[in-house]
Design a protein that fits this description.
Layout: H1 2-14, H2 26-34, H3 36-47, E1 50-55, E2 58-63, H4 66-75, E3 80-81, H5 91-94, H6 103-113, H7 119-138, E4 145-147, H8 148-165, H9 172-186, H10 192-196, H11 203-228, H12 235-241, H13 252-283, H14 285-299, H15 306-312, H16 314-326, E5 332-337, E6 341-343, E7 346-348, E8 353-357, H17 358-362, H18 381-384, H19 405-422, E9 423-426, E10 435-436, E11 442-443, E12 448-453
Helix pairs in contact: 2-3, 7-8, 7-19, 8-13, 9-11, 11-13, 13-14, 13-16, 13-19, 14-16
The protein binds protoporphyrin IX containing FE (HEM).
Residues 98-99, 110, 261-262, 265-266, 269-270, 273, 324, 328-330, 333, 394-396, 400, 402-404, 407-408, 412 line the site of protoporphyrin IX containing FE (HEM).
Length: 454
């Protein structure tokens, strides 16, 4: 963007820049889109934990590795803003929610949202997760091929419709909201040049139409509940009832933006984690068998309850944790530097797009030996205790750690438990995993898997 170039040149006049590429490079631009993990690992090996890289014409600062994660998220976080980084690109769809705001506005909103994510609320949502997961698994046929990615995506949306809005997921308003939201979200998976077009008929114009439709549909539901005083166990009800320390409620617009942000932040992430877990279990059937044995021993013929899902199934949890290490769906944390700062002895200027990356940090061989291998036993407590702080950050860390962590973690466990109890997984012969990276990591072209009964 032109203002990025202007800010960069202003900053260059004030002093030297961190190491790294400064000239436009078609090769780096191509690799950023198609081979970003190895591109950034190569840059890290050459330049260390902070370096510059130009993608198309935009200059970005990458901060990579455990110390860098800790610096961006905790120790040096006052140096970075979210809204003016690439998070701001989400504004046309999700508006001013937690992902796109900073400072007092963000902190006050987060305090208002917190009660909706308390443990008891998640326990209520767990029943929805279990019911939906069981029904979705019942609909799968043994011996058939299924696209587990599409299956998990539909399931995660049904769970979101019930847990967020209290809607029957088969009702007209739920399917309309889901449809507009999915289409709006697909904008962020388009090739970047397509995203820059504006005017009638462009993807951006479609995105705006979808946002308007969502404003009308969700707005009508908010108005209905305010009029009737309807209260439910869903997150929307919790937001409508919440007040800040001075007793002020959220406005309708604020509730809308928060709900859409939660839908955005929770939907793709859970879908992708389930898909990548199934991919790894298909390649590592001994782990799938170990999880099935654990489920039989801990839960017998019953579905796991909320507490078991969150902390009572250590083998499943290690497999989920390892999946989130190898494929953290929210793989990049975009920011903008709001002041000059120094990290690892390197001075960096204000006004520059920056990012940390869990994905790249989780795949550094100096932190995780043999980093590309699926090895859930890395998460045994005695091995985990050796990691430096900031090494493992699939949910971020610090004051802005994922607010939906317990929700998402429980949801992934509930879906995985229902699937593994019933089925073994097999990948089509010769199928290579390709990864899409926008807006979150996902298996490109879905995840076809053959299911056989256990
Ligand atoms: C496996 C599931 C999930 C993963 C891996 C995940 C990952 C993350 C990560 C990495 C961040 C921090 C991003 C950054 O530092 O730039 C984040 C923030 C956030 N997540 Fe999640 N998330 C998951 C599920 C959910 C769910 C289910 C919800 C809501 C229902 C949610 C809501 C949010 C929100 C609102 C934020 C912003 C928090 C703030 O800035 O205060 N996430 N998530």
């Amino acid at each position: 963007m032109p203002h990025d170039i202007r800010d960069e040149w202003r900053a260059r006049r004030r002093g030297p820049f961190p190491p790294g590429e400064t000239r436009p490079s078609l090769k780096n631009t191509w690799r950023f889109r198609h081979d970003v993990l190895d591109l950034l690992r190569d840059c890290y090996a050459e330049h260390g934990p902070i370096f510059g890289i130009r993608i198309i014409f935009g200059y970005n600062l990458a901060l990579i590795g455990p110390e860098a994660n800790h610096f961006v998220l905790v120790g040096g976080r006052e140096n970075f803003g979210w809204r003016d980084g690439a998070m701001g690109h989400l504004l046309p769809l999700i508006g001013d929610g937690l992902l796109t705001t900073d400072g007092d506005y963000h902190d006050a909103s987060r305090a208002i949202l917190m009660p909706a994510f308390h443990r008891e609320r998640i326990e209520e949502a767990t029943n929805v997760m279990r019911e939906e997961a069981t029904a979705a698994v019942d609909a799968l046929a043994a011996g058939a091929a299924a696209d587990v990615y599409e299956w998990a995506r539909t399931l995660a949306m049904r769970i979101a419709m019930r847990a967020l809005f209290g809607f029957d997921p088969d009702s007209g308003r739920a399917t309309e909201i889901a449809g507009h939201f999915e289409r709006g979200l697909s904008f962020h998976g388009r090739e970047y040049p397509m995203q820059l077009l504006f005017g009638p008929g462009t993807p951006l114009a479609q995105l705006r139409r979808d946002r308007i439709a969502l404003e009308q549909l969700v707005g009508a539901e908010i108005a209905r509940r305010r009029n009737d005083g309807t209260d439910g166990a869903d997150i929307l009800s919790s937001l409508l009832a919440s007040t800040d320390e001075e007793g002020r409620s959220l406005t309708d617009r604020q509730v809308l933006d928060h709900v859409l942000t939660l839908l955005f932040a929770g939907h793709d992430t859970a879908t992708s984690t389930v898909s990548f877990l199934v991919y790894e279990l298909a390649r590592n059937p001994a782990w799938a068998d170990a999880i099935a044995t654990e489920l039989a021993e801990v839960c017998g013929p019953r579905d796991p309850d909320a507490e078991q899902l969150f902390s009572g199934l250590p083998v499943l949890t290690r497999a989920v944790d390892e999946t989130l290490r190898l494929y953290p769906p929210a793989w990049i944390g975009p920011r903008r530097s709001v002041r000059d700062f120094v990290f690892d002895g390197v001075r960096a200027p204000a006004g520059i797009p920056c990012f940390y990356s869990s994905w790249v940090s989780h795949r550094l061989p100096d932190v995780f030996p043999d980093p590309d291998r699926f090895d859930p036993d890395r998460f045994l407590p005695e091995r985990r205790a050796l990691w430096p702080r900031g090494a493992y950050v699939p949910f971020g860390m610090g004051p802005r750690v994922c607010i939906g962590k317990r929700f998402g973690y429980t949801e992934v466990h509930a879906i995985a438990a229902a699937l593994v109890r019933r089925f073994r997984f097999e990948l089509p012969p010769g199928r290579e995993l390709e990864i899409n990276q926008a807006p979150t990591l996902s298996p490109r072209g879905g995840l076809p898997v053959r299911l056989t009964s256990r």
